[in-house]
Known about the structure:
Chain A: This is ABC transporter substrate-binding protein. The complex is a heterodimer. Chain A has 15 helices and 25 strands. Chain A has helices spanning 6-16, 119-134, 139-144, 170-173, 184-187, 191-195, 249-257, 305-314, 317-324, 354-363, 393-404, 417-426, 443-448, 462-471, 477-493, and strands at residues 43-48, 75-77, 84-86, 89-95, 100-105, 148-155, 158-163, 204-210, 214-219, 240-245, 263-265, 279-285, 288-295, 367-368, 374-376, 379-380, 382-387, 409-414, 431-437, 498-501, 504-510, 513-514, 517-518, 524-525, 530-531. Chain A starts with 5 loop residues before the first helix and ends with a strand. Chain B is an all-alpha fold. Chain B has two domains: 2-95, no CATH class; 98-315, MetI-like (MetI-like fold, Orthogonal Bundle), CATH 1.10.3720. In chain B, helix 12 packs across helix 13. At the A-B interface, helix 1, helix 3, helix 6, helix 7 and helix 12 of A face helix 2, helix 3, helix 5, helix 7 and helix 11 of B.
Amino acid sequence: MKKRPVLIGALLTAALALSGCAGGAAAGEAEKPATSGPVVGGNLTVGVVAWIGPLDRQQSSSRTFTNIQVTDSLVDQDPDTGKIVPWLASSWEIENDGARYVFKLRDDVTFSNGEKFDAEAVKLNFDSIIELGKQGTAGQANAYLRGYTGTEVIDPYTVAISFDAPKAGFLQAASEAPLGFVSPSTTKQTIEERANGVIGTGPFVIKDVVKDERLVLSARKDYEWGSTARKNASAPHIDTLTYLVIPESSARIGALTSGSVDAIQWPSSNNIDEVDSEYSVYSRPSAGIVYSLYPNTADPILSQEAPRRAVQRAINRQEIKSVLLDKTIQPATSVVSAVFPTYTDLSDKLSYNPDEVKKILTADGWAIGSDGIWAKNGQRLALSLPFESSENKALFELIQQQLKANGIELDLRQVTGAELQASLKSGDYAFAFGNFTRPDPDAFLVNFVPEYSNLARADVTPELTQLIKDQSVNVDAASRAKQSADIQAGLIDHAISIPLHEAVSVIVTDKKVHDVAFTAQWWAIFGAAWIDQ
Amino acid sequence: MTPYILRRIGYALFVVWAAYTVTFVLLYLLPSDPVELMLTTTGAGESSLKVSDEARAALTAKYGFDQPFIIQYLMLLGRALTGNFGDSLQHKTPITELIVSTAPQTLQLAGLALLFSLIIGVGIALLANFSRSNPVRSILFSLPPVAASLPAFWIGLLLLQFFSYQLKWFPALGNNGFPALVLPALTLAIPAAATYAQILGRGMAKELHAPYIDIVRAKGASRARVQLVHAFRNAMLPALTILGITIGGILAGAVVTETVFSRRGLGRLLQGAVDAQDIPLVQTLVILSAVAFAVANLAVDLIYPLLDPRIARAGR
């Protein structure tokens, strides 16, 4: 039921566009107003595309952001530098080569119901996440705690978290929202009860929940333990933060222009360059694996390296940028986005090169058939891409044209979500499409190592798989960064990842709203936001 | 009369049962695994660690997916008969709770839409036949086919644009109060109204040429009496059939309308449930829809004999 109301959509964006040149600034900061500073008070309403799912971040999927400000984590990640900074933990030590993490906790933190945040609370939370995992939920949190052997309470404000093997990515994982803390009383609730809302230590408290319609958060006035990576480490400036579900993109834009809401999650189907200067644009690329085609390396054709590499060079990413992407979105220059810690610029290896395509395929024994498509041993170079959302259709059609011009056939197959999951599970695809947000080299584990969901089904290059596993146990930051750079180059060289463009999170606000910020991942947060009175 | 009523009730029950069974079979035949989808929507399937086999088995058993087809069917049917529809896979809450909290929103919407569609549809049909001006008549007669061919989401966006964004008469979104109900109800009403106007208008035009109308006229009945009492009553039967069918289709219309107007309701619930292949929830919503359809048609069937006594007699 995803209809694209083209005409009215165009009408609305035309109403937004006056000069054609866009206001606001790039990458997470709008232009600074001339006023003296944040105004305290006011209610901020944000139009979002979909309901939030379970209101328990330990359980819920990574796609939601509305509930991340209710809980805090042990550490935070600075969105600008990628560095891990203190949050609920004031300091930490890594022991046993990364198999044991000792955290010193702040002693002034309370949950919004008055319960104290201490070492016992940390232990209760992590132990209960493992229990949730056994019941088939909290998958992401459990992935972060993989190999967990227990939490030791050393003193009321010191904990040691142990794993059965070194776990280099844990410090960054500890900053992720699925490992945010809920109150001890919440950990004792059932999965269903927790799904209706949890109690945390965060700057906002869940105040009102109307499923599928609105989530109202109220500011916690005694909050004063925000991390140094946040612009406002104390209580939020605004009084309440309301997320309204407005699924239809034209209706969402209309709600902003008519003043029904103060900010909206920008629909990716609409070009941000058409927004005029009456509105502020805040954006942040996802720090992680960019939107990519994951070749199914178990596929008879794509198990061979040459066809994969040919596709890599037959895609014209600059053309994708100029035809489809607005100013907030950059074409891929590596497996990961430019804000990813340890990012390496590999744009040379990703440039469009039709001669190289011919060279690679000819050398591998392929020849152009009478239908203009490469073939080898009677097998045509025809590849399938099943996809669900119409939002990406234009991108796929452009790639289809680009590949066709290079003698490669791409069969686009639009299916329902359920069918797509079935295809991915059974391996009935040549390419899968997706991105993955996680600002840590452990992001490579997910789609390129067999034990994980592994869309690329990649086990064709054992040495690369081994390198990805090696970095995940390497706590030496410098050599791990080097490994990450080698992995990026390896995935591109062997064309196990065919990156297309960066993913971006965009919030457009009325000019009276200031200082919307993003986490290192890309989630919009409103703890520092304020509204002109 | 009684056998007629009993037979109609029997048909209604059959429709509900058949809808339930067909949905079950269709959902069962879908290629994907509902447990897999459930894990995916909670973020455990894709983008992270593979879920352990024990956790998967526990979930499969919890929702009965490990049972054979026929057992699953009988189990769900048996529970449904006692009013227990189980838990939603996606929301993890009892389905009855979900329905109780969202159904009133959609019922209000459907009720007002029905009222609007009747006023507009009947109004246009009567005016078209009553008007003595030829241009007015042809405009009124050509309106319904045009309106019926407009997609609902387009009507919705157009109404939003003018009455919410420009004139600011009605709120653009949400479920709060009567004003928020007007535009969505109108969106839902227009295609239905067009159908009624078409059937009723053409029907009346036809009836007005029937021989019995000449007799009524000859007896000296007024123009209004000829139209409202005689032609209208006879043209109403086919329109009533259509009315019964449209009420059954309200849920389908609500999917679009509720999305465009950001309203909570059964339509949005259904859309989410289908996307997530939430079998128990889809089943329940299909039953609800089938019940609405069956009840509306039963009501129509029971009204028929009152309007045209020949029907009950023929059915004996």
